[in-house]
């Protein structure tokens, strides 16, 4: 039988079988464990797996993991070289943002977008709570949206309270596996509950360091959408699996800088103060905005922008 892993709890995997949506708890064959040696977990949420029912049982054994189109990872812990698979086969990364109440900084947005580019996952920005933005605030909101549209990202405007833009979000999610992120308080649960009522969305962190500095791990969960598709809810980019970038690689993940890279004098140009740098020239002429360039420098300097 074939199904999609929607939840893992360490040694058990919940596998959903379409079209009945039956959920079968499965274990994995020992052989698969060996395969996943560089990851702490060989199977993850979003994986398509082949499994067999255990004779006379309601449970199954996973025999095979189908080839992944992509996978999100994070370091298992600070000391280990091993990585933890967060999710696989993600079609879309959706960031819910609010320019205020609470504020999502441009730096945070750019980190998210850069991570998505690094994973080759299309990203979309949803600006929620637009009912709260009038007058000057609305102009500022539209400026931010214009900034990201000019770079090439789809931006949606929503208000859950006024039922604006919800169909567009629904359409965007239909028949895809989407990872949804955003600061606490931007309205993720409210938005998801509005388009998929009854879906019990947990917005708690899927991984965090406890106060004692010990790494505790809970696992991401995928939710089936009633109109087709799946979503994984994650609270922030830490869970999105921010990769450690090589300094010269970062500009590749800024959509508007990418085509310029070959035009720099030095092929290992970091676009900071090198002569004949195509990115610096583009910042001067404005085709790369100050805002995005500032985020670029910030990531290059490895500043943690988690807020
Ligand atoms: P989450 O932490 O991202 O899941 O955020 P919640 O869904 O818990 O929402 C946080 C607060 O924002 C709640 O009080 C919601 O009622 C409110 N909220 C959500 N969407 C909107 C919106 O479109 N407009 C306004 N004004 N408030 C909203
Ligand atoms: Zn350069």
Describe the structure.
- The chain is 24% helix and 24% strand.
- The chain is built from eight helices and 15 strands.
- α2 links the parallel β8 and β9.
- The longest helix has 16 residues.
- The radius of gyration is 21 Å and the shape is flat.
- About 5% of the residues have low confidence.
Brief write-up:
Helices cover 24% and strands 24% of the residues. It has helices spanning 30-35, 106-118, 136-151, 166-173, 188-195, 237-240, 278-285, 290-300, and strands at 2-8, 13-17, 22-28, 48-53, 60-65, 71-75, 83-88, 92-97, 123-127, 154-157, 177-181, 207-209, 215-217, 222-224, 230-233. Strands 10-9-8-11-15-14 form a six-stranded mixed β-sheet, sandwiched between helices.
Q: What ligands can be seen in this structure? A: guanosine-5'-diphosphate, zinc ion
Number of contiguous helices: 8
Average residue pLDDT? 87
Strand content: 15-25%
Instruction: Tally the beta strands.
Output: 15
Q: What global shape is seen? A: flat
Helix percentage range: 10-25%
Key features of this structure:
flat; six-stranded mixed sheet; binds guanosine-5'-diphosphate; alpha/beta; single chain; 15 strands; five-stranded mixed beta barrel; 24% helix; 8 helices; 24% strand
Write the layout of secondary structure elements.
Layout: E1 2-8, E2 13-17, E3 22-28, H1 30-35, E4 48-53, E5 60-65, E6 71-75, E7 83-88, E8 92-97, H2 106-118, E9 123-127, H3 136-151, E10 154-157, H4 166-173, E11 177-181, H5 188-195, E12 207-209, E13 215-217, E14 222-224, E15 230-233, H6 237-240, H7 278-285, H8 290-300
The chain binds guanosine-5'-diphosphate and zinc ion (ZN).
């Amino acid at each position: 039988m074939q199904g999609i892993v929607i939840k893992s709890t360490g040694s058990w995997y919940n596998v959903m079988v379409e079209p009945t949506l039956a959920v079968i708890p499965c274990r994995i064959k020992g052989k698969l464990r060996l395969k996943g040696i560089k990851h702490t977990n060989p199977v993850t949420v979003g994986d398509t797996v082949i499994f067999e029912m255990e004779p006379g049982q309601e449970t199954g054994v996973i025999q095979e993991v189908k080839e992944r189109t992509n996978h999100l990872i994070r370091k298992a812990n600070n000391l280990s070289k091993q990585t933890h698979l967060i999710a696989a086969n993600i079609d879309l990364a959706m960031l819910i943002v609010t320019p205020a109440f609470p504020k999502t900084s441009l730096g945070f947005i750019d980190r998210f977008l850069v991570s998505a580019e690094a994973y080759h996952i299309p990203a979309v920005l949803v600006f929620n709570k637009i009912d709260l933005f009038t007058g000057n605030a609305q102009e500022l909101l539209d400026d931010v949206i214009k900034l990201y549209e000019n770079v090439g990202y789809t931006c949606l405007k929503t208000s859950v309270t006024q039922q604006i833009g919800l169909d567009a979000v629904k359409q965007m999610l239909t028949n895809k596996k989407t990872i949804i992120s955003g600061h606490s308080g931007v309205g993720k649960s409210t938005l998801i509950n509005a388009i998929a009522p009854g879906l019990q969305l947990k917005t708690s962190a899927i991984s965090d360091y406890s106060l004692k500095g010990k790494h505790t791990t809970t696992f991401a969960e995928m939710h089936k959408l009633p109109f087709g598709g799946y979503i994984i809810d994650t609270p922030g980019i830490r869970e999105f699996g921010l990769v450690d970038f090589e300094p010269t690689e970062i500009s590749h993940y800024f959509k508007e800088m990418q085509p310029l890279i070959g035009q720099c004098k030095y092929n290992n140009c970091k676009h900071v103060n090198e002569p004949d740098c195509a990115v610096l020239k583009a910042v001067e002429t404005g085709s790369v905005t100050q805002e995005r360039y500032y985020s670029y420098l910030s990531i290059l300097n490895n500043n943690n922008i988690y807020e």
